[in-house]
Amino acid sequence: MPSPYVIAIDAGHGGSPTSDPTQLWDPGVVVGAVMEKEITLDLAFRLRTLLRRERVKVVLTRSTDEYVEISERWNRVHASGARMFVSLHVNAYDGDPSINGAAVLYPKPDSLPFAQAIDAGLAQALNRFQIQDDGVVTKPELWVHSDIPTATVEPAYLTNPRERSLLLQNDFRDAIVMGIFQGMLAADPQIEQTRIQIAHAEAAAAAQRQAEAASAADAARTATATRWGLIIGGIMVLWVVMRTAIRRAVRTPQPPPYRRRTYRRRRSNGKL
Ligand SMILES: [Zn+2]
């Protein structure tokens, strides 16, 4: 079986206050009751669902409401063997709620084509929501250790009232992850090729299992036929033996006792 294509997804921020005051936590942008950490985790799950359908192995840097250091997040990405990495956030601009739009950040030039592909997918998917495409922006201080195509996605502003209300809608969240997903597919044809290879290998394995099951059923039928053959053959042999025995018994009756006596008498008479 071909090994799956691996993609790492980071749900930005995370963690809640506990009784332990030394325990760090980071909700991200908070506007009213809406917290960035919850939106990013939900987006990560939705994106994972799309990628799994494409037979991609998805690794999340967090899958619960937990605080994870940036260095630890990168360790998890690196350990996963991921071939591309997307970090999910939502944007904020303090003091000016009119600021809006979608942007994709990338750490260094070798991630630029990947960031552009993600941005193009996002722009297309969010077009029907009239989200302005702010394009790609270099952000070298983010994911400094990155050695695979890496992008940080900021699909909308939580501080913009219109985009905030969109961010609370399922169809908008689905559109965000669909845009990122399409961007990933466009960035590396290997995702699609690996899916086809896995599908072919699975079909071949299924055909093999079917052939084995059919030949096992055949063998079972043959064994049953052999058993019945032996039983019927045994009955026939028994029948022939019994019939022969019966016929022999009928053909060679014991001579009546008086004749034997006569015979003996005559024989003894002759000798004497
Ligand atoms: Zn953030």
Mean pLDDT: 92
* Biggest β-sheet strands, sense, barrel: 6 strands, mixed
Global morphology? rod-shaped
Specify the helix fraction band. Answer: 40-55%
- Which H/E pattern describes the elements? EEEHEHEEHEEHHHH
CATH 2nd-level architecture of the domain at 6-188: 3-Layer(aba) Sandwich
- Beta percentage is 5-15%
Query: How many helices in DSSP terms?
Result: 7
Summarize the structure.
The chain is an alpha/beta fold and 272 residues long.
What does this structure look like?
The protein has 272 residues and is of the alpha/beta class. The protein has a domain at 6-188: Aminopeptidase, CATH 3.40.630.40. It has helices spanning 36-53, 70-80, 112-126, 161-167, 170-187, 190-251, 257-271; strands spanning 6-11, 30-31, 34-35, 57-60, 84-88, 102-106, 133-138, 150-154. A six-stranded mixed beta sheet has the order 4-1-5-8-6-7, sandwiched between helices. The mean pLDDT is 92. It binds zinc ion (ZN). Zinc ion binds next to loops.
